[in-house]
Fold this protein.
Amino acid sequence: MDRKGKEREGYVLFYGHIKPKGGEESKIPYKPEQVENFDCYDNSGKKVFAKLIKEYPARLLGKCSVVLASFSSGYWSRTTEGLKNLPKDKATNVLESWLSLESVKRIDLWNQNFSKPLTSELEIVLLENPLTIKPGQKFTVAVYYRGKPLKDVVVEHMGKAVGTTDEEGRINLRLREKGLQMIGASMKEKGDGVKADYVIRTSYLVFEVR
């Protein structure tokens, strides 16, 4: 998620890899309808109106302290003929199938309200002001799902696994360098067995250290 220039406050939602490896793309085109939500929050943690332009790439025009977007690339089935973007009941010779659900939250202004989740979905929260963290310092994040801390979840920082959450859903990270920071976490749930064997939920937290 990129922030647009100050002359036109807003955000642009991209899908892809922040640090592409061999064969991966930094930006992958998507269908506008795959964006399920793209919301703006003020400094109190209240959702406020911002104009959503649902095209590719989706844009949100408004002044926000936090922006949160949810996205789904749909159902996927791994078959004997390869990976298909289809539910289990629409594919043949399926080895496994899943529904992919993703979200990304970007913090631009800090308030202690943001140390708690804004939604009941899988979400990563910061327990301290990210905008004052210096390279070399440690900071703490927590992973929540349905409003409760989630333990034993693998957390990634800039695409690299750095550890798992404790009983309180927390993990300490170290800021290596300035710039855009991306923290991610995923979980797997049982699917309906018809369209998908399981559901993969992935959440990202983004903030910038200047």
Summary: The longest strand covers residues 66-79. The chain has one domain: 2-209. Residues 1-7 have pLDDT under 50 and may be disordered.
